[in-house]
Design brief:
This protein has 490 residues and is mostly helical. Helices cover 80% and strands 1% of the residues. The chain contains 17 helices and two strands. The chain has a two-stranded antiparallel sheet with strand order 1-2. Helix 8 crosses helix 9 (237-257), helix 10 packs across helix 13 (366-393) and helix 13 (366-393) packs antiparallel against helix 14 (397-418).
Amino acid sequence: MAGIGLRLNRIFGKGTILSNVVGVGYSAGVTVTPMFVIIGNVLLMSKALGFDRLGYVGRELFSATLLYIFIFSLLTTAPFNAVLSRYMSDVIYEERFEDILPCFYVGLLLNVLLSALLGIPFCVWEYIVGHVHILYVFTGFCGYMSLVLVFYAMLYLSICKDYGRISLFYLLGMIEAFLLSLLFAWVFHMSVPSAMLLALVIGFFSIACMELATVKYYFKKNSGRYRAVLVYFKKYAALVVTNFSYTLGLYIHNFVFWQTDLRMVVADSFVCAPPYDMATCLAMFTNISATVIFIARIEMNFHDKYKAYSEAVIGGRGADIKNCQNRMFRQLASELLSLVRIQFIITVIVFLMCVVLLPQYGISGIVMRIYPCLAVGYFILFLMYSEIIFLYYFNDNMGAMLTALSFMISTAMLSFYACRLAERWYGIGVAAGAFVGWTVAYARLRWVERHMDVHIFCRGTLIEVKYGLAESSKVYDAQEIRGGVQANNE
């Protein structure tokens, strides 16, 4: 993300109204465009093909399939991406670019194997127990695997700071999907849900192909050092736990409410809770601007202070190091407070707009009773994630792992409790769980600030650590020394 910060610095540095507008638009484009392109395309296809006029079963089967494709593709890629990103960052810092393709192939194999291991049994169940047509099941599985490839390849393009190209690939893929859906439905006379699902799958696969081809274009040499990538998973196991726990925490409250009276079972396979899931989606969109603000303000401003501190550590005096450290943490606190203030104003405005406008479009009742508490929860959740990023800055993997685990566990436990409360309190599990995670992250950042010198200067080793048979402890042989002395005397 530092690459975004550097580019935004150049844009905002001009100080004009137009540059500010361009900067905000750029930061929004590279962070949330892919998601909104997909959602917008689904809405356009639904409108053009008359999706709302279909039978209830067909509509719910398509919606549940799309929901599962997105959730579980994110969950299965989560355990690997943080470690792979760390490995690539180290490789790029050391300018060993020939080691990136081995990382790419190892990560691709791990992602595909885990995703298939979880996806195939579900598809078998969907076909045998749910009696869903085999072609529809296979299409859904292909969409799931294609989206896994899309999310995985995005990691490497992000390292290349090619965020604009990522958004372009999503745009092209979804345009293709929209046109194909019309072709399948109007020319080949496929059912609307099948046409939409197949078109989306082809669009996802096209995005994945464009991303994979771009990765191969950037990195052509292959060192063949695959074992080094696997060693990183052992060395940075905390990153695996952190990323997976955070991603699971985003959805674990939904899984809890899938077991309540709100649950709906589609084709004896897909379980969901439409009112709660819709309220969750609205709450996320209400606070999604926090991601843009985080990119545009926090990393853009904090990166310079962090760089100055790093340079002082390398060759500065003790007083310079302390001054840079104080300025860095003051900037961190200032930007966190600015994020809270700005996002709070945006959240209130968007919340009021949703409360006033959404009932006019049929979104009301239990959805709007659940929504307010979830909106608060996601407001705190995005603040917590910004703290996790700062913990990554300071290489505090243990602190990031404790934050993610506390968030995930507390969200799950409190969501079970929230199920027994009134509907307006259903989201209290997310709000309280995110607050617990935020508190742990904040306490850990303060701990890092107090122990920064120890954290930076006392974690290395003067003597290289090696593994193998210990050398002999014998220093000298007394008999050989006596023989040497006697020879000298003679």
